[in-house]
Amino acid sequence: MKRVLFIDRDGTILIEPPTDYQIDAWHKFDFVPGAITALAQLARDGEYELVLVTNQDGLGTDSYPEATFWPYQQKMLDILKGEGVEFSEILIDRSFAHNPAPTRKPGTALLTRYLDPANGYDLKHSYVIGDRLTDVQLAENLGCQAILLHAEADERAALSTTDWAAVYEHLRRPPRRAHLMRNTNETRIEIILNLDGTGHTDCKTGLGFYDHMLDQLGKHSGCDLYVRTHGDLHIDEHHTVEDTAIAIGAAYN
Predict the structure, then answer these.
(1) Active-site residue 8, yes or no?
(2) 130, 157, 167, 169 — which has fewest CB within 10 A?
(3) Residue 171 in contact with residue 206, Cβ under 8 Å?
(4) Looking at the structure, do residues 168 and 185 belong to the same domain, yes or no?
(5) Is 67 in the same domain as 24?
(6) Last residue within a domain, chosen from 172, 201, 232
(7) Is residue 89 within 8 Å of residue 82, measured between CB atoms?
(8) Model-level pTM?
(9) What does the pLDDT look like over 80-106, one tens digit per residue?
């Protein structure tokens, strides 16, 4: 399945002017430090499809004429293309924050094709990268993860940082997953563990309270945990409890 990076523009790729928030003059045009390098590395790795998603308040109105937007947008795209970075799709919402269209982030109306399972996108392992809480909310609405480029952390984000190098390192690391089978004379156990999951659990050991405790382990650690244990419960519970714990510990290691 295809994984996607839904990337914001202003404040994420380009430095956002703190006064009017519009990049409509050359003296306002500059890249966020590290953005070009990290995006070029991600493009070379080829692990993610890159999609640009941006709110541009009132674009095409008197307050933000088209002519003051496109030269800087095109310059950004040209510079990135020179480094091997091209977006598969560029999605722009033009509505205002005080009167948002369904297409305005964190709305998903511009992104419906990515939500269609028939198109084969792995949203669970995709990311929204942006500098605002609306980007984090967009990630939640899409069912994917968020990377927040901001000095103030948000617990909903998989990563909060101001460093694009940290973003790249987070995205390039191999999945922290384990699939383990453990068979003894008393038990047969299968464990699937994803340390970078969302807290989804499916634990069946034959002991209801133990299943509940294992569910809480996954839920409160944010790990995905699948457990199947077939033990000699007709004799005693301790083999099931002990061997399952040993197997889970081995999976964590």
Answers:
(1) yes
(2) 169
(3) no
(4) no
(5) yes
(6) 172
(7) no
(8) 0.71
(9) 999 999 999 999 999 999 999 999 999
Q: Which of 10, 57, 93, 131 is catalytic?
A: 10
Give per-residue pLDDT as tens, 52-74: 999 999 999 999 999 999 999 99
Catalytically annotated residue among 8, 57, 93, 131: 8
* Residues 163 and 187 reside in one and the same domain: no
* Whether residues 75 and 59 fall in one domain: yes
Q: Are residues 222 and 135 in the same domain?
A: no
Full residue range of the structural domain in which residue 63 is found: 4-172
Alpha helices in the chain (DSSP H): 35-45, 70-82, 112-115, 133-142, 164-172, 208-221, 238-252
Instruction: Indicate the number of domains in the chain.
Output: 2
Q: Which residues does 167 contact at the CB level (< 8 Å), separation at least 6? A: 38, 129, 147, 149, 159, 161
Residues in contact with 51: Cβ distance below 8 Å, sequence separation at least 6, in sequence order: 4, 5, 6, 7, 87, 88, 89, 90, 91, 114
Asked if 62 is an active-site residue, the reply is: no
Are the beta carbons of 224 and 194 closer than 8 angstroms?
Answer: yes
